[in-house]
Amino acid sequence: MHAIEVNNLTKRFGTLAAVDHVSFSVREGEIFGLLGPNGAGKTTIIRMLSTLTRPTEGTASVGGYDVVKEDGKVRELIGLVSEKIILYDRLTAKENLWFFGRLYNIPGELLNKKIDELLRLVKLTKWKNSQVGTFSTGMRQRMNVIRAMLNMPEVLFLDEPTLGLDPQSSVEIREFIRKINRENKVTIILTTHIMVEADMLCDRIGIIDYGKIVALDTSTNLKKLVSGADSTILELEIPNLTTDMIHSIRSLKCVSSVSQNNSTCIKVNANGDDAFDTIIDAIRANKRKIISVKNLEPTLEDVFLQITGHEVRDKADQKIKMHRHHMAKPRVR
Ligand SMILES: Nc1ncnc2c1ncn2[C@@H]1O[C@H](COP(=O)(O)OP(=O)(O)O)[C@@H](O)[C@H]1O
Ligand SMILES: [Mg+2]
Questions:
Q1: Closest Cα to atom 5, ligand 1: which residue?
Q2: Any idea which ligand is nearest the CA of 13?
Q3: Within 13 Å, how many C-alpha atoms sit on residue 268's CB side?
Q4: What residues are neighbours of ligand 2 (ion), with CB under 5 Å?
Q5: What is the per-residue pLDDT across 8-60, written as a single tens digit (0 to 9) for each?
Q6: Number of domains in the chain
Q7: What is the pLDDT of residues 186-239, one digit of tens each?
Q8: What span, in angstroms and rounded, lies between the C-alpha atoms of 28 and 217?
Q9: Using a 6 Å cutoff on CB, does residue 41 contact ligand 1?
């Protein structure tokens, strides 16, 4: 049986389709990722699946229970880590967990055991009796994750679990997520706008853009979409790079995109059997030295660019604004 099944799930806010006929299913024990830029609709999907908001259209079930008709049943078997951290600064780690555990009606003895076990899991045992207000952001997020684990959920929702964390804490949280998934056999659905995070953690990834799932597969298979027969990704180191030089590479027929990494390094996506030679020849024709050429494996970034036609970071935000502006216009009948 699937842990989660989603069929044509849709959420409209006015005329904006924040989530637009999304369908997917998540297998038991899987870590499933929803990857997409800000405003893509990730949080809205999580909110519908965790029964916090109702779908406008379509259906979804978690653990076999309908998120609308059997919302109480769904709530019993899920844990949710939302973007906002919910902890009491003045209470200790243990007191916080005790408070939330009692809300779930977990009997005292069992709860004590559970708290110790979870604190151990995320290496916070030493701070059991310290006030949460003194914790680093990384420690607070670890607390936030185990708080959602108190009721031993079958399905755990993690909405941008590493948002705002420093790189070291992000790495730790990712390790804990994997550990929780393996050791506690929890099905996990997580959202992120960080490509490497999805790549490292998720068994399968749904790429979401403007409320629609535009691709869904394992990371390896998604990358095959770009590394298809005749595509090439080159990283070139060229001293004294000029905008003219970059323009002339970009204007080559075989080149689909050029991005500049730093003052001497560019990344070129190209297609065709002779793309490599064509690019090198063009640079030589400009009388430029090439210090190094690397043939890169595609990243999820490349996949996203190829499928959506825009990059995740910069342009995405801009487009959302335009998109929303457009959507907000009254319809002409
Ligand atoms: N309560 C709401 N009312 C109106 N618009 C909303 C509401 N919640 C989200 N949106 C809009 O829906 C879109 C998707 O938002 P969200 O699900 O938060 O995206 P993500 O989590 O991927 O960043 C955005 O354009 C956002 O502004
Ligand atoms: Mg969000």
A1: 13
A2: 1
A3: 33
A4: 42-43
A5: 999 999 999 999 999 999 999 999 999 999 999 999 999 999 999 999 999 99
A6: 2
A7: 999 999 999 999 999 999 999 999 999 999 999 999 988 876 657 888 999 998
A8: 16
A9: yes
Which ligand approaches the C-alpha of residue 84 most closely?
Answer: 2
Distance (angstroms) between ligand 2 centre and the Cα of 111 equals 31
Neighbour count for residue 33 (Cβ, 10 Å): 29
pLDDT band at 289 (very low <50, low <70, confident <90, very high): confident
Pair (264, 116) in one structural domain: no
What is the domain extent for residue 209?
A: 2-222
**Is ligand 1 within 6 A of the CB of residue 306?**
no
Q: Which of 164, 195, 190 is nearest to 176 (CA)?
A: 190
206 touches ligand 1 (CB under 6 Å): no
**Full-model pTM:** 0.83
DSSP one-letter code for 154 = S
Same domain, 55 and 124: yes
Indicate the Cα dihedral angle 6, 8, 14, 18, nearest 10°. Answer: 60
Q: Which atom of ligand 1 is nearest to the CA of 38?
A: 23
Q: What letters, b where the CB count within 10 A reaches 16 and e where it falls short, cover 161-171? A: bbeebeeebbe
Query: Do residues 184 and 291 both lie within one domain?
Result: no
Q: How far is the CA of 47 from the centre of ligand 2 (A)?
A: 10
